Amino acid sequence: MNQKTNDFGLFIMGGGPGDPELITMKAFNVLKRAEVILYDNLSNEKLLEIAPKNCKMIYVGKQPYGKYTPQEKINELIVENAQNYQVVVRLKGGDPFIFGRGFEELIYAEARGIKCHYIPGISSMQGAGFIDVPLTHRGISESVWILTGTKKDGSLTDDLKCAMKSSATVVIYMGMKKVGEISKAYCDAGLGNMPAAIIQHATLPNQKQVVCSVHNLQESAEQAGLTYPAIIIIGNVVQAKAYANLNQGELLSA
């Protein structure tokens, strides 16, 4: 894959966590000359305003657990347009290679002779920073486990059990429908008091969040009116700022 901005072909692009100002300069420059944009419901529609007025816009959204454009249809539209236009953008929320099926679309297009380019985006999990939660922090968490809450068959991933055994921060995408199961898994392992947070619409004016213990994750989400799509974060980093303030207070009083 060639990464020159003035290249032609299919651009599989990350639109970031929501705020349109959080896209990359490369993404901005490609959008400015896009001839076709295939976008979904997780990409901010304000990004479409960057494109030329004559750009063809095609919505291929997938509402969580609701109406959706089948992936087979999306693949067909990608190929059809890439064969007829020079600059085709597949615009996805977050980063297209992190639970975004962007790589599946790239493989499908390349197999049909289409030149493809990948433009990374800020992943939605990095929205954690907007509620003062670092994904790693010295002395608290040395690594991050990134999991999908719902596998292709609809079940909760078994990798959660492995992640729970470590001191890593656990970030769960597409987990809101499984929030009760996630909470129970932690409680069954004696980890019900682990700090947790849920963030919905991170970086946007309508951002909502809740911070709680994992044992009352479901109750807290319901009380706060949180639903999907959202990111679940579990680990001591959720309380990192409180720890830092406590330590700072101890230093000042010493």
UniProtKB/TrEMBL annotation:
An example molecular function term from Gene Ontology annotations: uroporphyrin-III C-methyltransferase activity
Gene3D superfamilies: Cobalt-precorrin-4 Transmethylase, Domain 1, Methyltransferase, Cobalt-precorrin-4 Transmethylase, Domain 2
Alphabetically ordered keywords of this record: Methyltransferase, Porphyrin biosynthesis, S-adenosyl-L-methionine, Transferase
Pathway(s) where this gene product acts: Porphyrin-containing compound metabolism; siroheme biosynthesis; precorrin-2 from uroporphyrinogen III: step 1/1
Biological process annotations from GO: methylation; siroheme biosynthetic process
Annotated SUPFAM superfamilies: Tetrapyrrole methylase
Record PROSITE patterns: SUMT_2
Domain Tetrapyrrole methylase residue range list: 10-217
Entry keyword Secreted: no
Segments forming a coiled coil: none
EC number: 2.1.1.107
Similarity comment: family membership: Belongs to the precorrin methyltransferase family.
Listed name of the protein: uroporphyrinogen-III C-methyltransferase
